[in-house]
Amino acid sequence: METILRSRLRFSRSRLRQRSAAxxxxxxxxxxxxxxxxxGGLQLTxxxxxxxxxxxxxxxxxxxxxxxxxxxxxxxxxxxxxxGSTLVSDAMQIGTLHVDGAAQIxxxxxxxxxxxxxxxxxxxxxxxxxxxxxxSNKLVVVxxxxxAATVTTLKDEATYGQTHADGIYNSGIDANPSRGRD
Amino acid sequence: xxxxxxxxxxxxxxxxxxFGTDTSLxxxxxxxxxxxxxxxxxxxxxxxxxxxxLANHWQQTVGDWVDRxx
Lengths: 182, 70
Known about the structure:
The complex is a heterodimer.
Chain A: H1 2-23, H2 28-31, E1 34-38, E2 41-44, E3 49-55, E4 60-63, E5 67-74, E6 78-81, E7 86-99, E8 102-105, E9 114-121, E10 123-124, E11 127-128, E12 131-133, E13 139-142, H3 147-161, E14 167-169
Parallel strand pairs in A: 2-4, 3-5, 4-6, 5-7, 6-7, 7-8, 7-9, 8-12, 9-13, 12-14
Antiparallel strand pairs in A: 1-2, 10-11
Chain B: E1 4-10, H1 11-14, E2 29-36, H2 48-56, H3 65-68
Antiparallel strand pairs in B: 1-2
């Protein structure tokens, strides 16, 4: 399990280093360090930035650095953004996204729909501490096993996001006191 | 006045087959997006089709205001 995840990331790093040498890409990616490799997961403690798609085949990919960005995430694995960390991505088509910090699916022309089998935010009903900023994007959460409870939770998170930068929100419409205006 | 809202749509109720680039929806899908209030069919505009949708569900309890966006 860990081998698959590790090899995928090393592949991405290798490609980015090649690109860096050719195009003077910022060296932040070289700084990231693998802090923990364990069965089923991989944790990065420094900021992660890549212009390539990142595949989380299995296990949990933990982004503990303060600021992280990636073109997209794919695969059936789990992505975790801890408290104090931020992530910006164009799209996520993965198993589980768990956000205790802040994640944003930024607005892009492609408009690819993000798909998750589970979304978990830090906090609890009406007191969410993790935030997912959808901007203008669409998200599909596919949950057939605990469907009704998941619908209820997502609605609660979206309601909370109307007045907070946590829960599920759109920073494009929810950024000021007259929230919702264009 | 608020005109947009992040909405959560239970596709077990909505029965949509597609949502943007996602064409593989089923009854287990839950859709999250920003929508105009009153835009029941998520077309991007509030029009006669939304009024028809409202009329079709008049006094029904299925599909609360979040689902129907009214």
